[in-house]
Amino acid sequence: MKADRLLVEAKDARRGFDWKRYGETLRYGFYVIFHPFDGFWDLVHEKRGSLAAAHTFLALFLITYVLRLMCTNFQFILAPIQYINIYEQCASLLAPFLIFCLANWSLSTLFDGKGRFKDIYMGLCYALLPYVLIQVPMILLSHVISFDEAAYYSVLDSISIIWPLFLAFVGLMQIHDYGPGKTLVFILVSVFGSLVILFLILVFFSLLSDALGYFVSMYREIVFRLY
């Protein structure tokens, strides 16, 4: 049966993008967020998810975050809209997200983790779905409720953050086949590893900038002396 399924998938890949499977993996995201333990296990080990759906959830998360900053009623969020750069806002979320995935995958060998980079990325992307489902209605709700009802808004806002964090925790636990305690330690180590990677990236670009500045200065000096 498994060989037949792989054969069908290979034929679909040759025909082009499988829209039917894409729709199924999108719908499976709703199963994952309500049944995280079974959902994340099947997502990776039973191939119930897809990278296309993961990219979609990540893109929706970034779009929702930007819309929240730009469209939420000023009573509930103070954001200088005139100074918001969409690309910078997206990069400020996307870069740490990818760095954490890289750190988590890099350190998984030391902790006997079973997840691949693809699995980690896909699992964390699926965990972002509740943020989109909650924040989009909240943007509209912010223009209907008054400031006196801000407590309801705050509760929903907290849920939109806590729920994805819980799903990410369960997802990493299922992907790497860890227990809760080891998963918590592994996440803390991954955060530290992310900071190390970020530091190395900053050092690299700083050295690159200094090197380019040196060559530019040397070129200008040569041109000045010759001409």
What does this structure look like?
- The chain has 227 residues and is mainly alpha-helical.
- The protein has one domain (2-226).
- The chain has nine helices and no strands.
- It has helices spanning 2-15, 19-34, 36-45, 51-71, 86-107, 117-127, 129-141, 150-176, 180-226.
- Helix 2 packs antiparallel against helix 3, helix 3 packs across helix 8 (150-176) and helix 4 packs across helix 5 (86-107).
- The mean pLDDT is 85.
Number of helices: 9
Overall 3D geometry? globular
The rounded distance between the terminal residues' Cα atoms is 77 Å
Enumerate the spans where pLDDT stays under 50 for 5 or more consecutive residues: none
Approximate strand percentage: under 5%
Radius of gyration: 22 Å
Structural class from helices and strands?
mainly alpha
Residue share in helices? over 70%
Q: Number of domains in the coordinates?
A: 1
Largest β-sheet summary: none
SSE pattern, N- to C-terminal? HHHHHHHHH
Average pLDDT value? 85
Count of DSSP strands: 0
Helix and strand topology:
Layout: H1 2-15, H2 19-34, H3 36-45, H4 51-71, H5 86-107, H6 117-127, H7 129-141, H8 150-176, H9 180-226
Helix pairs in contact: 2-3, 2-4, 3-8, 4-5, 4-6, 4-7, 5-6, 5-9, 6-8, 7-8, 8-9
Q: Characteristics of this structure?
A:
227 residues; mainly alpha; globular
Kindly summarize this structure in a few lines.
This protein is mainly alpha-helical and 227 residues long. It contains 9 helices and no strands.
